Amino acid sequence: MKTVTVFRGDGIGPEICDAVLEILKSAKAKVTFECFEVGAMEYERNGKLMPDEAYASFERNKVLLKAPITTPIGKGFRSLNVTLRNKYDLYANIRPAKSNPAIVTPFPNVDLVTFRENTEDLYVGVEKVIDEDTVHATKIITRKASERIIRDAFAYALSNHRHKVTCVHKANILKQSDGMFLAIFYDIAKEYPSIMADDKIVDNVCMQLVMHPQAFDVLVMPNLYGDIVSDLTSGLIGGLGLLPSCNIGKTYAMFEAVHGSAPDIVGKHIANPTALLLSACMMLDYLKEEETASRIRTAVDEVLKEAVSLTPDLHGTATTQQYCDAIIEHLL
Known about the structure:
Isopropylmalate Dehydrogenase; 10-stranded mixed sheet; IsoCit/isopropylmalate_DH_CS; Rossmann fold; isocitrate dehydrogenase (NAD+) activity; alpha/beta; about 325 residues; NAD-dependent isocitrate dehydrogenase; two-stranded antiparallel ribbon; IsoPropMal-DH-like_dom; single chain; oxidoreductase
């Protein structure tokens, strides 16, 4: 039995987190949970985003399921996501976007995976005020970080029977930083002759994704582009409420919904837990509980197909609990 650390988050975090844990227990997943309150409320109470016990739990268990946490814009504390990624070297952000036939969008048959480097680029947060009218932000790209995310993308493509990896960059303008990332990409591509390798400039990728998303398979890119492109891919399949995500390092792994904490619907009991639930399924895959993960995904597919117990964001009228109950019924 594996013990997993759980951060319940804030906003709708606790609501969807509790629903997901209920489903995991009903599916008889071989995991136990250590749950902690983290986020804005914890910061207001104790001046910390996370209690020390929460860090200790993650360091002990090495696997974390994290609900959404509010991050102030332009003031206050730094994103807890960025803090965790850097502190525990969670260098690979992996976000699969796959169409579900029950969710009608203008983009059928999407099946792609974004590999986002997670620890550097502009997200190092190094800024310098030059004068009252000028601020410089530092973009950092290193060979070590570039090599490991690119290598992981190719290894994933090979082991998951994917046929192509696309490097996303802006090397036409950022000739040294993105230029190095692109050069490393093609060097590593030579080690995987069975996998097609190509590259595209990031703005062209965004255009092509909304014109021909089926042309993409696995995409790998630096941090900022990955943040933007992966959110775009969620729109192709119905929104962030359906997109799972994980952050993987050599020692630690964090699984999370990447949507926000949605303070406007807190307490209304209508939040959609699907993204966090599918992220939990990625966690089960990581823990070698693929059969349990597959049963949960199948139950989700059945509930979406029936379209009876869907939350308002999925054009239904069900509460979070009713949606959760419907999934559990399909597990039994």
